[in-house]
Queue: 4 jobs
Job 1
Amino acid sequence: MEQPIFSKQKHTILSLLLKMVMFIGAIFCFALGHYMLGFYTLVIIFISSLPMLVGKRFHLQFPTEFEFIAVGFIFATLYLGNIQDFYNRFWWWDKLLHGSSGVILGILGFNLIILVKSCNRTMVLTPFFSTLFAFLFAITLGTIWEIFEFTMDEFFELSMQKSSLEDTMWDLIMDTAGALSMTIFGYNRLIKSESNS
């Protein structure tokens, strides 16, 4: 039988360290006014902490790789985007990160499916349904964020949408593209997992 890359104890320690890094990053995000990233970070921490909260009962553990991806996203947005000014130096940086956020939200959608199936082991969800849920989950949150940006601009005269409709549409397109690529990958993994079981 193949041995896991991380033992349970090492995984727990590494997971806690990554969550600490993400939480500190979230504080900096809100302090600097980057509310979208702060919100995403807190969502990521919450979802990735669910296994710890219910793990004893359901023996649930999300892949460590997901947490590495999340920390990488925060690093790219907070440090490279803001401290190194990549947002202004590279016109495509914001678009890239919106695509990446679609990927991360797609991963969150799949992890929620894992959580639901672990809580109700009699539930049978097809790979197609799991993939559809993850995709819709990702683009729904992306759309809700754009509505939030519009609301903040309208009521508080901010400039979160930048070039208004054009910026909003490109953000939604990149969110959708990232979610689609992630869910196609996840669907293929689910199909392979079922065929090997």
Job 2
Amino acid sequence: MTNKQLNFINNIASACKVNEHYNILPSLTIAQAIKESNWGKSTLSSKYFNFFGMKWTPTCGCEYVELPTKEWNGFTYINCKARFRRYYSMTEGIKGYYKFIHSYKRYSNLIGEKNSEKACLLIQLDGWSTSPTYGKSLYNDYVLKYNLLKFDCEYNYVPFSFLFTVGNVYELQVNLYVRQSPKGEAVKFECLTENGKANAKFDEYGNGILLKGTRVTCKESIAIDNQVWIKIPSGWICAINDGKNYVI
């Protein structure tokens, strides 16, 4: 990730925080802003703070800018001009997006949704995009890749432990010690499950260390201070520590 990309994410996240009362997940908002505006590089976003390509209507309560675009006429795409919503700050642009979501009944299932993966799929099914891979791309290529879930947690939309669902399979991003309990003593290599042993090494004291890339099944998750621990068949591992994802 470049510094410009990191700044873009943080700036959009800050605008989400200001507008948090609209109750839309920041991870969804940021992912869409990245995807729809090409990291804020589009003319519509860089000059007019419309990061989502939203069209203008007489009742939308904002000004418009007329820009060239392509429209589908039922047979092919044609070049034309269209009116798009215009804003004067990033905060105002994010507010406009939230008001857009709230103004259409078909998007009402996004309001209060706490599962980012589900929200990404829902906005596709609600009609935002006709691409059958749009929702999957939002979640995998943006939410997960750029760790946007942390904003859902930091802004208290969801508890940190909510990120891990019992029964789901996750992948270690680093080598991790297995513990007897959250923040507890290390589990000896010989006490790991057979599958655990097959995907682990041990240190000079015989403690088991699961290797990066190992896939584990979540049996339970708990948030403690700035950490999230998940229970796996062999014991407990630290999945998030101070905002850093060790397990995805």
Job 3
Amino acid sequence: MTVFEKFEPIGRIDWSKFADPMVSTGVKLMKQIEEFGFEAYIVGGAVRDIAMGDFDVHDIDIATNMPIDEIKDKFRTYEYGGGERHGTVIVHIGSFDYELTQFRTEGAYSDKRRPDSVEFVQSFEEDTKRRDFTINSMGIDSNGTFIDYHGGLSDIEHGILRTVGDPRERFDEDALRILRAIRFASRFGFDIDIDTLRA
């Protein structure tokens, strides 16, 4: 039995079902950001895994339109690996660290791995267009609602792995995504979308 066959995707979750205090603290952080007048969503692999029924979350990344300078002013933060120039800082709360990244679009990838430049945007939808696969492009808000602009939930339901947008562009930007495609398809027992496979 594949991982995919064990789960049915869901469109909304109840945060109170998560026993790990890292999750509840992360939700409180999102609500604080909202109280300052900004948006915040849990993003990345945690969202994908939750959508597939795996509530054992160990790592929480948050995307927001709150500017980095304001995040640093309102929260205890630190930087790692030069992430701040790309809009990413770590927010430390209690014993937990949360990676916060400002909504952004990305410029050219001259080294086929990392963007040469980023531009900050206000739209979460615009931010999701830079992500690799539909199943990794979703967000969950502080109320537990999935935000899914690219059909990630449907692709989980049907066991399909596909890129966000043109697969040739996604792989040309970051060649590591080719290996990630194989890994995700193998891990979850997904079929690779034909256009993604050809690319």
Job 4
Amino acid sequence: LWLTHINIADLHIDRIDVEDAFADSRAYALINIYNNSRRKRFFVRVYHDVAETAQVEDLPPKSFKQVRIPLREYKRGVHQLPKIILDSTFPFFLLKSWKVFRWSEKFIVFPRREGLPHLPFLEALQETEEGRTVDKVRSPDSEFSGHRKFEDSDSPRQIDWKAYARTERLLVKDFQGFQPREIKINFNQTGSLINFEKRLSQMALWIEVAEAKGL
């Protein structure tokens, strides 16, 4: 009992970041697990739903590891962050000790991405590169120029997980390329649709298409 308890007693979660979530797909969360003790901890599970768990096999002293776990599908709107559970059955895998972390913060789930993929205002954009400036942009279509340290203002989706697997450091890729053009997506452009939710879904799809085109 004592060995199982101390294996998890000094572990802590100080934040949970929900990746960009949409009503048409499952949400995922990035969780930092800290080991505040002076000893390594082993075989710790982290989960929201016991059916889908992630496991940290070892956690060095005074260190942290980030794991990605599935949540569930949510309706469009503002939602409470889900409770997250840490547990362990180490060292004998007979008894279990656990911790539950609850949060007061909320996160946003964006509308479903449905409708016509054609951008109705794309014809107004010039196809030439005239007027664009060369700058560092975070776009997979640009030329890779190196890594930099992950900052709180960055989206978790920008993390280079392959680099993290090698270095255990949260790094973000930087790219060298043309600064993308800006377009404005207006709710009035969905006037042909009557249903309010369908209008929001159409806007969400246009945003997705525009980002894929580098706009």
